[in-house]
Automatic annotation (TrEMBL):
Its cofactor is Mg(2+). PANTHER family: GEPHYRIN, MOLYBDOPTERIN BIOSYNTHESIS PROTEIN. Keywords: Magnesium, Metal-binding, Molybdenum, Molybdenum cofactor biosynthesis, Transferase. SMART domains: MoCF_biosynth. Gene3D superfamilies: MoaB/Mog-like domain, MoeA, C-terminal, domain IV, Molybdopterin biosynthesis moea protein, domain 2, Molybdopterin biosynthesis moea protein, domain 3. This is Molybdopterin molybdenumtransferase. It catalyses: adenylyl-molybdopterin + molybdate = Mo-molybdopterin + AMP + H(+). It comes from Undibacterium rivi. Catalyzes the insertion of molybdate into adenylated molybdopterin with the concomitant release of AMP. It comes from the Bacteria.
Length: 432
């Protein structure tokens, strides 16, 4: 159902690459091909700002007012003219009025005079400085002692338009709206914003051995966990999801599932059935329905992955055929699908930040592939961040993902890691 139109076929894109080898594709190259092939979906809806949390802004938002609208006080204290501040000692000032937030003082303020002022109150004309209450002495209704050397001219005054000036771009199109952005929009008086419509992503699991929750676990079978991790990852990304369940290894069922997904969604994510020895029909049907590449990626875990675009009944959808192993599904989702889905959503999302930290232990690694190990990041006695690997790193061991608080990313060219070396990590949790 996508309206995206990529101008080149996958074949066109890879034929421009000097050393494209689908059987030994470095991670960066696969990411590059995906980025070139994916196009954003164009459709906009207008939402009240609260509903727009987590959504992708579809236009620039230009401020129609100055925020703040007036110079105002940053402190509770006394407003005066800075040129009147004493050079030495303490000088008594006459208090000629009070300025409250939302209720300004409109009178004059002469030499030797000041106005009692509250935080957020408009600065009286001819005042440019606020001395906080705690620096003053002997305050009465009529007078206050103001000492030298506590403030300089202009201190504790917020300037008109210093947060946002009238006519200035407040938020850029493509921004994923966070709590601060909702507040910013409200501060501009903006009640509704245009956002990109949610991306619709259909997903299903493939494999005769998979059982859905509630079914008995027959011999040699496993419960389908991938649909649940995918549900979690896609929900957090803000996608509209279509969970199509487990599809058996039957050509007619698989074809029907791919067609239905294609007709109803912008992107399709499957797990399982894409490895070299896969004894099922998944790859065959993917290939039959569109422009799909089958890759062996230089990574661990992960390796097999299908990517492309399939077509059915005049509709098309991007396809991510992820491997079946539960950890591999998460790694390939985060390092390939995530960025592509964000791009389809029209989001200007920076790549995930990798942080250099100390490795507590040696890690076996050979150059020529990217490795994603599950790590636990802690702070040592000197306050430095250091990481250790969670127990077993098998690609089927989902517990390793659950226990970890970060992913250790060992880059393509990296060799063995010794204890004390720097490695890069991707944090699982951050401020949202
Ligand atoms: P495959 O990529 O289909 O060869 O699957 C690789 C491994 O992942 C096999 O051990 C599968 O049983 C397992 N697997 C595949 N899909 C799932 C799933 N949805 N949930 C849990 N394990 C799975
Ligand atoms: Mg399978």
């Amino acid at each position: 159902m996508t309206h995206a139109s990529s101008t080149s076929s996958l074949h066109d894109i890879v034929s421009c690459m000097s050393d494209y080898d689908p059987h030994a594709l470095p991670v960066a190259k696969a990411q590059d091909i995906i980025a070139q092939f994916i196009a954003p979906v164009q459709a906009i809806e207008k939402l009240a700002i609260r509903q727009a949390l987590g959504r992708v802004l579809a236009t620039d938002i230009v401020s129609g007012i100055d925020v703040p609208a007036h110079d105002n006080s940053a402190m509770d204290g006394y407003a005066l003219n800075g040129s009147d501040l004493p050079a030495t000692g303490i000088r008594d000032f006459n208090i000629v009025g009070t300025a409250f937030a939302g209720r300004a003082y409109h009178g004059d303020v002469g030499a030797g005079e000041c106005v009692r002022i509250m935080t957020g109150a408009v600065m009286p004309a001819s005042c440019d400085t606020v001395i906080p209450q705690e620096f003053t002495t002997n305050a009465s209704e009529a007078q206050v002692g103001i000492p030298a050397g506590k403030v300089r001219t202009g201190d504790n005054r917020r300037l008109k338009g210093e947060d946002l000036a009238n006519g200035k771009t407040a938020l850029q199109r493509g921004k994923i709206l966070r709590p601060a952005d909702l507040g910013l929009l409200a501060s501009l008086g903006v009640a509704e914003v245009p956002v990109q419509r949610r991306l619709r992503v259909a997903f299903f699991s493939t494999g005769d051995e998979l059982r859905s929750l509630g079914e008995p676990l027959d011999e040699g079978c496993v419960y389908d966990s991938n649909r649940y991790t995918l549900y979690g990852m896609l929900s957090r990304l803000g996608c509209d999801i279509v969970d199509m369940g487990v599809i058996k290894d039957d050509p007619a069922e698989l074809e029907a599932a791919f067609r239905s997904a294609c007709e109803n969604a912008d992107a399709i994510i499957t797990s399982g059935g894409v490895s070299v020895g896969a004894a099922d029909y998944t790859k065959q049907i993917m290939g039959k329905l569109g422009d799909v590449a089958f890759w062996t990626i230089g990574m661990r875990p992960g390796r097999p992955m299908a990517f492309g675009k399939i077509h059915s009944q005049g509709k098309s959808a991007y396809l991510f055929g992820l491997p079946g192993n539960p950890v591999a599904v998460m790694v390939t989702f985060y390092f390939f699908a995530r960025q592509a889905l964000l791009h389809m959503m029209g989001a200007n999302a920076a790549p995930l930040p990798l942080i250099p930290v100390i490795s507590k232990t040696a890690i076996r690694k050979r150059p020529g592939r990217t490795e994603y190990q599950r790590g636990i990041l802690t702070t040592n006695a000197s306050g430095e961040l250091e990481v250790s690997v969670t127990g077993s790193q098998g690609s089927g061991i989902l517990r390793s993902m659950s226990e970890a608080n970060c992913m250790i990313v060992l880059q393509h060219d990296q060799d063995q890691v010794s204890a004390g070396d720097k490695v890069t990590v991707l944090l699982f949790d951050g401020m949202l």
